[in-house]
Design brief:
The complex is a heterodimer. Chain A is mostly helical. Chain A is 84% helix and 0% strand. Chain B is built from eleven helices and no strands. The chains are: A mainly alpha, B mainly alpha. Chains A and B meet through helix 1, helix 2, helix 3, helix 6 and helix 7 of A and helix 1, helix 2, helix 4, helix 5 and helix 7 of B.
Chain lengths: 248, 302
C-alpha cells in the first residue's frame, strides 16, 4: 500500500509540475497585463484540483493499461504471424477510435454548414445530416488506412519521410484540384483525429511492433503512426469534396 | 453546487465511456476472436482503463471549470479594441518623449499605420500571450506526455522526455504567435504552410544525412500530438477572437489556421533540438578525445 501511495504521490508531483507553466501564464496575464482580479477564485482552485487529480489518474492508467496493452497486443500479433489479421486490427483501431470522436462530430457539423452554403448539398436538414455522416465515415476510413499503412511501414522498414513528404505533395496537389469550400475543413479534420486515448495506445502498438520484429529499431521505426493519421484525413476529405462536386 | 458538479462530471464520464466503447470493442474483439488468448494481468488492465477514463473526465471537467473560461476571456480581452487602442495610443505618444525601451517603439514609424486600423506592431501583448499560451498548454498536454515518456523509455535515456516536450512546446509557441501575426496582417495562410513544409523537407533531408536520422518519425509524430485536449480550445478561441476584433478579418476565413501552425512548427523545433543535442555531443566527444590525446602525450613524455 505504501508503495502504491508513493507511486501516486510521484505522479501527483509530476502533474503539478506539468501544469505549473499554464497556471503561471494565466495568473501573470490576468494580474499584470490585464490588471484584473481572478474571477471566482474558489471555482478556479477547485477546477485546478480536478485537473491535477485527473492528470495523475490518467498517467497511472497509462502505465497500468494503455502502454502494456498496446505492447502485449503487438507481441501477440507478431507471434501469430498473420499479416492480414494485424492489418485488419490496425485498420479497425483507427476507424473505431475516429468514428466516435466528439471533436470530429463537431467538425462534421461545421463542414455540412459550409457545404450547404457553397450549394453543393441541399439546405435541408436531411441532406446536411447525410453529408455529415459521409464526412465522418471518410475521415474514419482515412485514419484506419493510415494506421494500417503505418503498421505495414514498420514491418517493411520503409523510411517514414518518403510517405510523409509524398503525402504532403498529395495534399498540395489536392488543394489545387479541390473545390474552395472544402479546403479549410479538410485541413481542420487532420488535427482532430488524434485523441488522448488513441495516441498512447497507437504509440505503444507501433513501438511494441518495432521492438519484437527482428531488424527493426523501436526509436527509428516505432513512431510515425500519429503523423500518418493526421495527414491522410486532409487528402481523403478533399477527395470527398471533389467526388461530391462531380456527382450531380 | 457539489451535486451540480457531480452531475457534470458524470455527464463527461458518460461521454468518455461512449468514446472508449469502440476502442474497447476493437481491442476485446481481436483478443477473443483473432488472438484467442487472454492479455497478461487482465484485472490490472481493467483498473488502468478505469483510471484513464476517470482521470480524463476529471481533467476535462477541471479545465472547463478553471482554465477554458479564463483562457477564452483573456483571449477576448487582449483582442478587445479598447485594450488594443491603448496599445495604439501608446505608440504615437512615444514619438514625443524618448522611447522607454518598450517594443511599442517602432510602431510610430509609418504614419499611415493608425489610419488603416492599428499597425501590426501594436499587438505586442497578443503575440506574447499567444506564445505563452501555446507553450504552456502544450506542456500540459497528456498525449504529448505519453509520447515523450515512451520515447525516453526506448531510447535508453539517450533522449530526455522533458527536453522533447520543451522542444515541442517552443514549436507550438512560435507557431501560435506567428499564426496571430498572420491573422493580424491578413497574409495568406497557404504561403506560410507551403514555406513551412519546405523547411521541414530541408531539415528532413539534412537529418537523413547526419546522425540525427532517428528523430524524424518522432518529430513528425509530435506535430500531430500537439493539437489535442488542452491546446485546441484555448488556441481556437484566440484565433476567433482576433479575427473578430481586427477590422477587415472574418472569423470564417481567417479564424482557423492557428491549429495548422501549431502542428507544423513542432516538427521543425524537434528536429532542430535533435541537431543541437547531436552537435553538443559531438563537441563533447571531440573535446574528450583531445583531452585523452593530450594526457597520453604527457604520459609518453614522462
Amino acid at each position: 500500500m505504501t508503495a502504491q501511495l508513493k507511486q501516486f504521490l510521484r505522479l501527483l508531483v509530476g502533474s503539478v509540475r506539468d501544469l505549473a507553466p499554464i497556471i503561471l501564464v494565466v495568473v501573470f496575464f490576468q494580474l499584470v497585463v490585464l490588471q484584473q482580479p481572478l474571477p471566482n477564485l474558489e471555482t478556479l482552485l477547485a477546477g485546478l484540483a480536478f485537473v491535477i487529480l485527473g492528470l495523475t489518474l490518467f498517467m497511472r492508467g497509462l502505465e497500468m493499461a494503455l502502454f502494456p496493452l498496446g505492447e502485449s497486443m503487438a507481441e501477440a500479433f507478431a507471434q501469430k504471424g498473420s499479416l492480414i489479421a494485424l492489418l485488419a486490427f490496425a485498420f479497425c483501431l483507427g476507424f473505431g477510435t475516429t468514428a466516435a470522436e466528439p471533436a470530429l462530430i463537431a467538425v462534421a457539423e461545421e463542414a455540412s454548414e459550409v457545404a450547404a452554403k457553397a450549394g453543393v448539398i441541399g439546405a435541408a436538414l436531411e441532406a446536411q445530416e447525410e453529408f455529415a455522416f459521409g464526412f465522418r465515415v471518410t475521415v474514419a476510413l482515412s485514419v484506419g488506412a493510415a494506421i494500417a499503412l503505418g503498421v505495414l511501414r514498420i514491418l517493411k522498414g520503409w523510411p517514414i519521410q518518403y510517405l510523409i513528404i509524398g503525402g504532403y505533395m498529395l495534399v498540395v496537389a489536392m488543394t489545387v484540384v479541390a473545390p474552395e469550400w472544402v479546403i479549410g475543413v479538410a485541413y481542420d479534420s487532420g488535427g482532430v483525429t488524434t485523441s488522448t486515448i488513441t495516441v498512447p495506445l497507437v504509440t505503444a502498438l507501433g513501438v511494441g511492433l518495432a521492438s519484437v520484429i527482428r531488424g527493426r529499431n523501436p526509436i527509428t521505426d516505432g513512431f510515425g503512426l500519429i503523423a500518418l493519421a493526421s495527414l491522410t484525413p486532409m487528402i481523403f476529405v478533399m477527395v470527398y469534396g471533389v467526388l461530391l462536386e462531380r456527382t450531380p | 453546487m457539489i451535486v451540480e458538479w457531480a452531475w457534470e462530471i458524470l455527464e463527461i464520464l458518460w461521454g468518455n465511456l461512449i468514446d472508449v466503447t469502440p476502442i474497447a470493442v476493437v481491442l476485446i474483439g481481436f483478443q477473443i476472436f483473432v488472438l484467442r488468448k487472454k492479455p497478461p494481468r487482465p484485472a490490472r488492465l481493467a483498473v488502468g482503463f478505469l483510471y484513464v477514463v476517470l482521470g480524463l473526465a476529471f481533467f476535462l471537467f477541471g479545465l472547463e471549470k478553471a482554465l477554458f473560461p479564463l483562457g477564452e476571456t483573456m483571449a477576448r480581452q487582449l483582442t478587445d479594441p479598447a485594450f488594443l487602442e491603448l496599445g495604439g495610443a501608446r505608440g504615437p505618444a512615444l514619438a514625443d518623449g524618448p522611447a522607454d525601451g518598450s517594443a511599442q517603439g517602432p510602431a510610430q514609424g509609418p504614419a499611415q499605420g493608425p489610419a488603416q486600423g492599428p499597425d501590426w506592431r501594436f499587438y505586442l501583448w497578443v503575440y506574447i500571450f499567444a506564445a505563452a499560451i501555446g507553450f504552456s498548454t502544450t506542456a500540459a498536454e497528456p498525449a504529448l506526455i505519453a509520447v515523450a515518456l515512451k520515447a525516453e523509455d526506448i531510447s535508453g535515456g539517450g533522449l530526455s522526455a522533458l527536453g522533447l516536450r520543451l522542444a515541442v512546446a517552443v514549436g507550438v509557441a512560435i507557431g501560435v504567435a506567428l499564426g496571430a501575426f498572420r491573422i493580424i496582417t491578413g497574409l495568406p495562410l497557404y504561403a506560410f504552410i507551403v514555406v513551412g513544409y519546405i523547411i521541414v523537407i530541408i531539415q528532413t533531408v539534412k537529418a537523413t544525412r547526419g546522425e540525427s536520422k532517428w528523430i524524424i518519425p518522432l518529430a513528425y509524430d509530435s506535430g500531430g500530438v500537439t493539437t489535442s485536449t488542452v491546446t485546441v480550445p484555448v488556441v481556437a478561441a484566440l484565433g476567433l477572437g482576433l479575427a473578430e476584433a481586427i477590422p477587415g478579418r472574418s472569423p470564417l476565413l481567417d479564424g482557423f489556421g492557428l491549429i495548422a501552425f501549431a502542428s507544423l512548427f513542432p516538427m521543425m523545433t524537434v528536429m532542430a533540438y535533435a541537431e543541437l543535442t547531436d552537435f553538443i555531443r559531438r563537441r563533447m566527444q571531440a573535446r574528450q578525445a583531445r583531452l585523452i590525446a593530450v594526457t597520453q602525450e604527457e604520459e609518453e613524455e614522462a
